[in-house]
User: Fold this.
Amino acid sequence: MAEQTEWEMKAANLLKAELKRQGVTYAQLAELIGDKEPNVRNKLSRGKFSAAFFLRSLVSIGCQQIHLSDL
Assistant:
């Protein structure tokens, strides 16, 4: 299996941090976006997901802004 690139890791960590800030679990995110929890968990652990998944997740949890300076 290919290793996570630096940018894949940053995207996954950013989404995980926002989930934590909003108090949303992987199961809750899966329900919000109409996916299954194992799929969400795998995407976040691998860091391999589309920009569409990233944006849909952020909007679904009520995130209105992200700070790229945190990267």
